Amino acid sequence: MQFTASTQATQESQLFVCTHSDQITDETAKIIANTLTRKEIFGTAAIPVSGSLKHIAVVYLADLQVETMQKAAKEAAAWAQKQVSLSINLHPFCNLNTPLVTQALVAALGEAVYRFDAYKKEPNPAKLQSVEFVHPERSEMIKDTLSRAEALLYGVNLCKDLANTGSNICTPTYLAETAAREAQAVGAEAKILGSDYIRENMPSFWGVAKGSVQEPKLVELRYFGAADKSIAPIVLVGKGLTFDSGGISLKPGEGMDEMKYDMCGAATVIGTFIAAAKAKLPINLAVVVATCENMPDAGAAKPGDVVKAMNGTTIENLNTDAEGRLVLCDALTYVEQNFTPKAVIDVATLTGACIIALGNVASGLMGNDQDLVDALLQASRNSNDKAWQLPLFPEYKEQLKSNFADLQNIGGRPAGTITAATFLAHFAEHYHWAHLDIAGTAWKSGVAKGATGRPIPLLMQFLVEQTER
């Protein structure tokens, strides 16, 4: 889908956006706006013009809060996707609000037309092909906004595509090579390390990966967008389990197909990285992804095994289905040994307990630096990509004490999301760190099954706000 900016409408199908009907000069659109009740935010009509129908729609914004704009944009996008091309009239909006409305509409339109049908015999592509945003005075501003909004949309769609792809195709090698290819295409650096390095240097990671015939990969991406390339980078770390069977602690069969989504943390940080590079954000950014499968092979890790992590900590593996933290702990140590980071944020579909706590509405957020956590919460509010902070009180460490090792990898049912983050915190003591548990927000089940692309909007907003400080 192509987005453009213009000073006047050129398409037959038109969408008018307003906060009051008096702002609309088009006669048909004004009539539609005046028929809307106080609870209605969208109306449409089709009028005959020269033997065909001209489609007109109005979306009414009760206020200019992000959540209001996104809700209205989503309803408008459901209608817009049925058009071939569309003009969106934004003339009522000022310098401050024009970009916000544009961003909300691009995101909603992108979501409405997204299809993942590459493996279907008869694909069903979206009808909508082009959208022009119209403002008589602010077309240049809209062009700048579109550049960043399209970059975000690209990153979200890349994340969705990777996550939706079956694990027989999206293997650790596929994920790593796709990340490297996408990074190099935007002028960033990419490095991939394989099983030899992981076996010799990252024993906790290897303990999970060794049960699969698929080779594990460690992916490192670097983008230097700041004027000063020596400024410490923000590092995003992603859990990349391209399939999680649970290992010897085998998961139930029902719904196991969705364990292809256990790499959504990796897909999220890759998508965010590519979006930031495409948008040319003036920031130094890096990504580290640890990707493998968790399978019940004869050589797989067993409950009760003790493994030494990359930083020398010994870990008793009480449940092989708590493998994400065993992979991430070495990735966090790799970051300590290879970067001097400004901040580190790991993203993972880590615990089912997070779904019990927060449902599918908010991602769980924890960290060892309140300023970093507060910045992520602010970005969450500004993007309406919801997150909620959970505590990391020292008392939770008691649940991770082992009789036979420095730590055990599970702390029992109580506070499962928090004890998982407490485990990771042990490996992030030497830098500012935050953890996003996206088990409830990364994908949807049921009829609407598919990846959501969250929390890329939150992370992208965070990165933008970091550049404005």
From TrEMBL:
Gene Ontology terms describing biological process: proteolysis
Subcellular location: Cytoplasm
Residue positions binding Mn(2+) 2: K239, D244, D262, E323
Annotated GO CC locations: cytoplasm
InterPro entries found in the cross-reference section: Leucine_aapep/pepB, Macro_dom-like, Peptidase_M17_C, Peptidase_M17_leu_NH2_pept
Domain Cytosol aminopeptidase: 319-326
Catalytic activity: Release of an N-terminal amino acid, Xaa-|-Yaa-, in which Xaa is preferably Leu, but may be other amino acids including Pro although not Arg or Lys, and Yaa may be Pro. Amino acid amides and methyl esters are also readily hydrolyzed, but rates on arylamides are exceedingly low; Release of an N-terminal amino acid, preferentially leucine, but not glutamic or aspartic acids
Residues reported in the UniProt entry to bind Mn(2+) 1: D244, D321, E323
Keyword Ribonucleoprotein in record: no
EC number(s) per entry: 3.4.11.1, 3.4.11.10
Principal cellular location given in the protein's record: cytoplasm
Keywords of the record: Aminopeptidase, Cytoplasm, Hydrolase, Manganese, Metal-binding, Protease
Active site residues per record: K251, R325
Cofactor binding notes: Binds 2 manganese ions per subunit.
Co-factor(s): Mn(2+)
Protein role: Presumably involved in the processing and regular turnover of intracellular proteins. Catalyzes the removal of unsubstituted N-terminal amino acids from various peptides.
UniProt record similarity statement: Belongs to the peptidase M17 family.
Cross-referenced HAMAP family: Cytosol_peptidase_M17 (MF_00181)
Protein name, as recorded: Probable cytosol aminopeptidase
Species whose genome carries this gene: Kingella negevensis
Gene: pepA
